[in-house]
Specification:
Blueprint (H helix, E strand, L loop, with lengths): L1 E5 L2 E5 L4 E3 L2 H5 L8 E2 L4 E2 L12 E7 L2 E6 L4 E5 H8 L23 E3 L8 H13 L1 E5 L7 H9 L11 E3 L15 E4 L11 E9 L6 E5 H11 L1 H9 L2 E6 L4 E6 L2 E3 L5 E4 L6 E2 L5 H18 L5 E4 L6 E5 L3 E5 L9 E8 L1 H14 L4
Parallel strand pairs: 9-10
Antiparallel strand pairs: 1-2, 2-3, 4-5, 6-7, 7-8, 10-21, 11-23, 12-22, 13-21, 13-23, 14-20, 14-22, 15-16, 15-19, 17-18
The structure holds fe (ii) ion.
Length: 368
């Protein structure tokens, strides 16, 4: 990829073809102190107040810089590398991290070790890369006093507060408003599909775990939906097509969100799985279509619940699990409350937290 000049036209050569860059695209990017705030990298001018038919009076390439004089008298020196970076749409720091599919044969789970200064160093960078690769990470020795999970979340980005509060306690209580607060097993599910937007990432922090059961379970929704696509294409298609209503009610709020069980992005790749069959409501459709939908939901449920895909492990006090709520399903095995306490704390953050931190650390640590 390179920049070329031809009669005051600036062209971008991507290796196979050469195309003119719109002069206004370059004019918008003028970076002199007069036009760009160096600190925030925000424009000091409003480009929508300019005529868009700006042209280039003079242009030359001087080492790494593209020097331009525009016909409105503005001069600029643009870094060629930065222009190329924009053309390669290289924001894809996150997209460049290849998602690795996994199943029950995951093997040993490496744990990161908590340190007070971890949020600003390579440890955090490595942890976030791993998080995007596998959809979860475990960190051990995270302080368990004073709802430290909130500090932890806010040291990566910002906690996503919900009507449950900044964080929630997961322990068995009398008259619970959610099955999470019992000692019953919890089948693999994603959290809060009834919110709009759904919280992206869940943190779960083990404060006490004195019982033999109560193992945490995870399933990779990416693996399962890919297998479903391969083996039961019709089921996959209908689950990516029909929007169902997810609903949560209590005395203060009625939350509803309509979505597919398998949501795809513009490239038809997995964007988000949602699965919480106690609170989803499919609309009334043709009987044949509903027949297919119900069979498809049963099949994906069978797969999500199968030993083939599930990993199980015990969280110990101080262990903190961070998992992608758009990709993974989580659950737990049952436990006996007579054996002792099992107490976890949970909270949510969104992708802006992890993405923002990862880009910041890449810039700070000067990784290419
Ligand atoms: Fe949950």
């Amino acid at each position: 990829m390179k920049i070329e000049l031809r009669e005051n036209k600036i062209l971008f050569d991507n290796g196979t073809s050469s195309k003119e860059i719109h002069p206004f695209w370059l004019r918008e990017r003028v970076n002199n102190d007069e036009y760009l705030d160096k600190n925030t990298q925000q424009r000091k001018f409003d480009p929508t107040s300019l005529q868009t038919n700006v042209s280039i009076k003079q242009a030359k390439i001087n080492n790494d810089l593209l020097e331009i004089v525009f016909n409105d008298g503005v001069n600029s020196k643009l870094e060629i590398e930065k222009i190329i970076e924009e053309f390669s749409r290289n924001d894809s720091l996150i997209k460049s991290i290849k998602r690795e599919k996994w199943d029950s044969k995951f093997g040993k789970i490496d744990k990161f070790n908590y340190a007070e200064d971890m949020f600003e160093n390579k440890e955090m960078y490595d942890m976030l890369i791993k998080f995007y690769k596998y959809g979860f990470v475990l960190i051990k020795n995270v302080p368990t006093k004073k709802n430290f999970i909130v500090n932890f979340a806010n040291s990566i980005g910002s906690v996503r507060r919900t009507n449950f509060g900044e964080y929630f306690d997961v322990k068995s209580v009398p008259n619970p408003n959610d099955l999470a607060y019992t000692s019953l097993p919890l089948a693999p599910h994603t959290d809060n599909p009834y919110r709009n937007p759904v919280p992206c990432i869940q943190l779960l922090h083990c404060i006490k775990n004195e019982v033999r059961g109560g193992l945490s379970t995870l399933v990779d929704g990416f693996t399962v939906t890919e297998d479903l696509k391969k083996e039961f294409k019709e089921y996959y298609d209908i689950l990516t097509k029909i929007k169902v209503k997810f609903k949560f009610i209590d005395k203060d709020v009625v939350l509803e969100n309509w979505s597919e069980l398998i949501q795809l992005d513009e490239n038809h790749e997995l964007k988000q799985v949602k699965f919480s069959p106690r609170l989803d409501f499919v609309p009334i459709l043709d009987k044949e279509e509903l027949d297919l939908y119900y069979n498809a939901r049963n099949k994906i449920s069978e797969m999500y619940n199968s030993d083939k895909y599930r990993i199980e492990f015990k969280l110990m006090p101080g262990d903190l699990m961070m998992m992608d709520n758009y990709r993974l399903l989580h659950g737990r095995t049952s436990f006996d409350t007579n054996e002792g306490n099992r107490y976890l704390q949970g909270c949510y953050i969104d992708y802006d937290s992890t993405e923002g931190k990862l880009r910041h650390l890449k810039r700070k640590l000067k990784f290419k």
